[in-house]
Amino acid sequence: MTLKLGRHEFADDATLMMAIVNRTPDSFYDQGATWAEDKAFDRVALVVEQGAEIVDIGGIKAAPGVEIGPDEEKSRVVDFVARVRETYPGLVISVDTWRAEVGRAACAAGADVLNDAWGGADPELVDAAAEHDAAIICTHTGGVTPRTRPYRIEYDDVVAAAIADTVAYAERAIAAGVDPRSVVIDPAHDFGKNTFHSLELTRRLGEMVATGYPVLVSLSNKDFVGETLDLPVGERLTGTLAATAVSALAGARVYRVHEVIETRQVVDMVNTIAGRRPPRRAIRGLQ
Amino acid sequence: MTRVVLVPGVLALLPEYAGLTDPVAELRAACLEAVAWLGEDVTVVADTQGERVARALLSAVGGFEAQAPGRLRTSTTEPVAEVRGAPQGERVAQALLSAAGVSARSGPQGAFAARPTVVVGNGSACRTEKAPGFLDERAAAFDDDLRSALVSGDVSGVDLALGRELLASLDGISRLGEILAPGGDVTIDYDDAPFGVQYWVMRWES
């Protein structure tokens, strides 16, 4: 399905790198490396140079921690969105928030996408997207409260649950007025899931792709990779890229990542193997 | 007036081998320009590999419908070119003709007299250590001699056995004596060995 992400449209076969930009002091991977606004802006410049089509700007870490209210979240995100919008008019700006109030302010400042990592916890978020002709990422969390860790959650069939919930969320977004081309679904690895759930979702991602909605995967350095390989944060790139390859083969369209270059190479390689993309330049044996 | 063109049998000219960037863009441009210069009702003289490529390229521009290997079909409403000789070079030639907007047809062997003709062939493939046939010290001299023969229009003295050793594509070139009329003008549009394979795009007019 063609993707329309706010001001930007992408062909049916386009794969997109969504680079994570944290305006947080405590996110699990970068530990506040881009907490300062100028550092975050430098990160945007870097990932744009590396070829990212999307930046995903977040003002609150996903894990439990200090309570951050809507005003504080907006103070971290909204002006920064405006600055990025002004500097990079061709860049897709996503904002990682579950709050409609924050989403509205971010879209008014120039955001194209609302990335709801918490599965529609705020039912008005779809209205915020519709009001601003923004795209929305519909994730599956199993209904958990934002910023909580999974605890003894089980599913009869985690893939069926993810499909049912994300498609229902997508249909609710469309009913609220979001452009059907602007709805993306995301199984949300690790969110409301144990490692076995995330592995099964990776293994059966093709079933989500078969819904017809573009699928986003957020795999980068997550705990399911770390537990699978018994590796700490900082040593999970190879495992992340392996999961990325499986997801690419299944047909995922958007990749939320810390490492843009490595992920792009894996996605391009897999899609070329799959016959969906030509080689960059082929002359061997054809001279 | 007779027009004859030489193009190399480069498989990278085929659409099924296209990448996101064209490794033979300059060569392709020269080939297309030369083939377009031939006009209509073109005869192709080539080896086996060109036929499939030609069919696909012709299909892409609507002047040719792809079929099983070894068979050609053309629109009966368009000016056509006759294809003869071995198919490899024919595929390349057909592709170039098609891309240049000239359709082609298969047909029985016959005289070349007065027909515009595209010949598919190239020099050695042993010009560098990275070349398909690795570096052969004899290759440069062979290509120089072949170039001179092509420019003179007399290929009767070309050492075909050495050419085969050096992986030169000579099936079409060896028949130039049947095709070229004496006393013509020759133009060299392309003369390079970018991948260790010697390519020429040449035009003869008489």
Our estimate of the beta-strand percent of chain A is 5-15%
Instruction: State the total count of DSSP E strands of chain B.
Output: 7
Strand ordering within the main sheet of chain A:
8-7-6-5-4-3-10-9
Q: Give the proportion of residues in helices of chain A.
A: 40-55%
H/E order of the elements of chain A? EEEHEHEHEHEHEHHEHHEH
**Roughly what percent helix of chain B?**
25-40%
> What is the first-to-last residue Cα distance of chain B?
5 Å
- The biggest beta sheet of chain B, please? 7 strands, mixed
Instruction: Give the overall average pLDDT of chain A.
Output: 96
Radius of gyration of chain B, in Å, reads: 16 Å
The DSSP helix count of chain B reads: 6
Number of domains of chain B: 1
Structural class of chain A: alpha/beta
**pLDDT < 50 stretches of chain B:** 53-82, 105-110
The neighbouring-strand order within the major sheet of chain B is 4-3-2-5-1-7-6
> How far apart are the first and last residues' alpha carbons of chain A, in Å?
37 Å
Write the layout of secondary structure elements.
The complex is a heterodimer of chains A (287) and B (206).
Chain A (H helix, E strand, L loop, with lengths): L2 E3 L2 E3 L5 E7 L14 H13 L4 E5 L11 H18 L4 E5 L3 H10 L3 E4 L8 H7 L3 E5 L18 H19 L6 E4 L8 H9 L1 H5 L6 E3 L4 H7 L7 H14 L3 E4 L2 H14 L14
Parallel strand pairs in A: 3-4, 3-10, 4-5, 5-6, 6-7, 7-8, 9-10
Antiparallel strand pairs in A: 1-2
Chain B lengths: L2 E5 L17 H14 L4 E4 L3 H11 L21 E4 L1 H13 L5 E2 L10 E4 L18 H14 L7 H6 L10 H4 L5 E8 L6 E7 L1
Parallel strand pairs in B: 1-5, 2-3, 2-5, 3-4
Antiparallel strand pairs in B: 1-7, 6-7
